[in-house]
Automatic annotation (TrEMBL):
SUPFAM superfamilies in the cross-refs: Metallo-dependent phosphatases
Organism of this sequence: Flavobacterium proteolyticum
Occurrences of domain Calcineurin-like phosphoesterase (ranges): 2-133
Pfam families reported for this sequence: Metallophos
Record-given protein name: Metallophosphoesterase
Lineage: Bacteria, Pseudomonadati, Bacteroidota, Flavobacteriia, Flavobacteriales
Amino acid sequence: MRKFVLGDIHGGLKAIHQVLERANVTNNDTLIFLGDFVDGWSESPAVLDFLIALQKKQSCIFIRGNHDELLLDWLLGNNENIDEKLWFQHGGETTVKSYQNIDAKTKEKHIHFLQSLQNYYLDTENRLFIHAGFTNMKGVDYEYFKPLFYWDRTLWETALALDPNLSKDAITYPNRLTIYKEIYIGHTPVTKINETIPVNKACVWNVDTGAAFKGKLTIMDIETKEFWQSDALPELYPNENGRN
């Protein structure tokens, strides 16, 4: 049995099929999805249908992303929680359009799935899987404002800015980067630092390789760090803009 982690999907169902095939994933493998299943490409409802069916075949762990929470609020009619103009600019408009022909029963199924998402997953080897990050210096158990689990960017920024020569014993070494053996995140595409593959800084692995934009979807073997990628999403959806 292998354990895989997958980056942000953003409505790109075709990319999921590609990476699962390219990594030769079997029903005996565990899949950890880091969230942001929706908003970007046109197949957000189909992505949720696929994931709901997939968890009946094999072990899956689904982490909550900020875009997943935005969609949940929209489906529930909690519009006071949504800045619609901002959401639409970042992929929400495509998702809303894709739900125009989705029946009420399917929407209810999607609501139930989105409500079931986990804020984070901590495995038996003290490896943390979380969409965005956390801010409390003592770790996720002490985070007061839970939406930071899927909105925070400071964890990744801290890891990026950290002097790699700084000793973990140094008084200035960030405590957040000492709590867990490894931390796997998405949320902030590595394409923002001109990278196209998973990036490791300190104990943090960022596997969001920009599938919402011009990048690819990535799946990575947690033990070996071997990874596989889809085609670039604009190639899979040539008549769409994604979040570009």
